[in-house]
Design goal:
Bound molecules: adenosine-5'-triphosphate, magnesium ion
Shape of chain B: globular
Oligomer: heterodimer
CATH superfamily of the largest domain in chain B: P-loop containing nucleotide triphosphate hydrolases
Number of strands of chain B: 17
Strand content of chain A: under 5%
Largest sheet of chain B: 6 strands, mixed
Number of helices of chain A: 12
CATH class of the largest domain in chain B: Alpha Beta
CATH class of chain A: Mainly Alpha
Largest interface: A-B, 25 and 36 residues
Radius of gyration of chain B: 24 Å
Strand order of the largest sheet of chain B: 6-7-8-3-9-10
Distance between the termini of chain A: 41 Å
Strand content of chain B: 25-35%
Number of domains of chain B: 2
CATH architecture of chain A: Orthogonal Bundle
CATH topology of the largest domain in chain B: Rossmann fold
Order of helices and strands of chain A: HHHHHHHHHHHH
Structural class of chain A: mainly alpha
Number of strands of chain A: 0
Chain lengths: 263, 327
């Protein structure tokens, strides 16, 4: 009993060390810009760089659009598959896993070939077109997370009976999804949204190959040209990402409780 | 008088499995109708076709002269209560009740008044701010009833609304449902597999058996003049009488046999008591009549002690009370 506890703790400490030591070392290094003493100079330098703000703002905006488009695509799809075509679910599971299996590089080369300036639909021919393409690519990247979050949310409510109850009261499909289904899976959707946000903020490959001024390429650029700022940026991105994860947990506590079910 | 709810040659197949096999019935405005039958006989399927959730394979459904067979559920102006309550978890009790009114475009102040009226009707005044999860099953089901009737639907449909509740609440709520239904005069179709429930609250009962309508009539008719063997055995208790003295397929209800002669009795049987069951107001005796078990119900009485096991008794019954069971 006692030795079991010891081993459990040892593994926990080793695991924690694996994550915390590099983080602590990075943090320590980021404070050493000024010779001989700790300071936040690296952070000040990062925040003073106009590209930091502009690339971060760009990624936030693309992230928000990605979330909205993702919700508009995923929620109705999951709803109708669960309600009308349950036999399609294994197929959905498979399709939504593909973005995890196919490298982003392959995806973006495919996009460039399909939507390049000499193609029939030259999305990359204009800035707006490229932004739209980037958003679509991010929706695809975030699909595995958004799908699972929404699917889990719908599992906790009896969407079949709730849909019928709303229908017989006179509601149409749009009213049912907007007024009944969405509010009841809001927490699940938000957790999918924060995961999407975390992915978009850090993404490098696609943004860089489409040549958009996103936060990911900015991070990499700084990393190759400067010494202390990359460490500071790593810590900042870490805080942003974990902030998003933390929000998922906080929101989970506000999950609406479903009414008693008898089946 | 024209029928208010009319179902004509209704058939429903799932693949090759026909679960409703040509059902016809017609009811008048304001009637309380029960669809009664054992599990799997197609009651829910009929109700769901009336609601519009299942598409009939063939046949027609008319409400108040309008053919609604092919309308979408949200165009039918019906109300429905589900077994699992199905209140909207994200809405308060008040908003749940107001849901249909809001969809129909009723202004907010009228909605509020209607919600208040409904809450008074179901005996839950002041509950509009509560959420469904803060209420008991019985309370939730009453709210579901209020939600169904608030928009003044043409028909109220209930699919085993009481089966998730415990016995006491089941009885009180069914009486409440019946009282509200009579109060509002709303035509109601109630699905149940519980014959006692159907008998106690219905104007008319439709007895279903394996996708067919076996008999339709008032509880009194169904109980006293069952038209098929299935109805006779499914509704209430029944004793099959010994073939030797009565012929085949003869049966009688337990309460129509007595231990003492009555003015109308003209037939006797002799047997030995094999079991005595004291049920409170009723004492149920099991009598062995030369190998055929016969149950008889007698009222409990203060003065006399019930007969004992092993006693030999004479049973009195009237030949006119004997039912002949058909196919
Ligand atoms: N969607 C469906 N697909 C295939 N078969 C179905 C479907 N719905 C019902 N059935 C079948 O139809 C038959 C009748 O079902 P129904 O639900 O109407 O029975 P019920 O009389 O309401 O029974 P219970 O008292 O158990 O609720 C059953 O054999 C059932 O398996
Ligand atoms: Mg049923």
């Amino acid at each position: 009993m006692k030795s079991q506890k010891f081993w459990a703790w040892l593994i926990f400490v080793l695991g924690a060390a694996y994550f915390i030591i590099p983080l602590a070392a990075t943090f320590e290094f980021s404070l050493r810009m000024r010779r001989g003493e700790y300071s936040f100079d690296a952070y000040a330098s990062v925040f003073a760089d106009p590209y930091f703000a502009s690339s971060f703002a760009y990624s936030v905006i693309v992230g928000l659009f990605t979330i909205v488009v993702g919700i508009l695509v995923v929620v109705p799809a999951v709803y109708f598959v669960r309600l009308r075509m349950p036999w399609l679910r294994p197929f959905m599971e498979f399709v939504t896993l593909l973005p995890l299996v196919i490298p982003a590089l392959v995806l973006v080369y495919g996009y460039i070939r399909l939507y390049g300036s000499s193609s029939f639909i030259p999305f990359t021919g204009s800035v707006l077109g490229t932004d739209i393409l980037l958003t679509c690519a991010y929706v695809t990247l975030a699909l595995p997370y958004m799908y699972r979050a929404v699917d889990n949310g719908m599992r906790t409510i009896d969407i079949g009976t709730l849909t019928e109850a709303a229908q017989i009261a006179g509601a149409n499909q749009l009213q049912i999804i907007g007024q009944i289904i969405l509010p009841n899976i809001l927490v699940a959707i938000l957790s999918g949204a924060f995961l999407t946000f975390a992915i978009v903020i850090g993404e490098f490959t696609i943004a860089s190959l489409l040549n958009r001024p996103a936060f990911g390429p900015y991070l990499v650029g700084i990393g190759t040209n400067r010494a202390y700022e990359p460490a500071a940026l790593a810590i900042i991105s870490f805080i942003i990402t974990w902030g998003a994860m933390g929000m998922i947990n906080v929101l989970g506590r506000f999950a609406p409780r479903t009414s008693a079910r008898t089946d | 008088m024209a029928a208010f709810l009319e179902v004509q040659n209704l058939v429903k197949s799932f693949g090759t499995n026909t679960v409703v096999k040509g059902v016809n019935f017609a009811f008048e405005k304001g009637e309380f109708i029960s669809l009664l039958g054992p599990s799997g006989c197609g009651k829910t399927t009929i109700l769901r076709m009336i609601a519009g959730f299942e598409r009939p394979t063939s046949g027609a459904i008319r409400v108040d002269g309008d053919e609604i067979t092919h309308l979408k559920p949200n165009q039918r102006k019906l109300g429905m209560v589900f077994q699992a309550y199905a209140l909207f978890p994200n809405l308060t009790v008040g908003d749940n009740i107001a849901f249909g009114l809001k969809i129909a475009g009723m202004p907010a102040d009228q909605r509020r008044a209607r919600v208040e009226e409904m809450l008074r009707l179901i005996g839950l005044p002041g509950f509009e701010k509560r959420f469904p999860y803060e209420m008991s099953g019985g309370q939730q089901q009453r709210v579901a009833l209020a939600r169904a009737i608030a928009p003044k639907p043409r028909l109220l449909l209930l699919d085993e609304p009481l089966s998730a509740l415990d016995a006491k609440i089941r009885v009180s709520l069914r009486e409440e449902i019946r009282a509200i239904q009579q109060d509002l005069g709303i035509t109601t179709v109630f699905v149940t597999h519980d014959q006692e429930e159907a008998m106690s609250i219905s104007d008319r009962i439709v007895v279903m058996n394996a996708g067919n309508l076996d008999q339709m009539g008032s509880p009194h008719e169904i109980y006293n003049r069952p038209s098929t063997r299935f109805v006779a055995t499914f509704v209430g208790q029944l004793n099959t009488l010994p073939e030797a003295s009565f012929g085949p397929n003869r049966a009688i209800r337990p309460e129509l046999i007595s231990l003492a002669p009555r003015p109308e009795t003209d037939t006797t049987l002799t047997g030995t008591i094999s079991d005595v069951g004291f049920l409170g107001s009723v004492v149920r005796l099991r009598v062995d009549v030369s190998g055929t078990p016969i149950n008889i119900d007698t009222f409990n009485s203060h003065a006399t002690t019930p007969p004992q096991r092993g006693d030999t008794v004479t049973l009195h019954l009237a030949a006119k009370d004997v039912l002949t069971l058909g196919a």
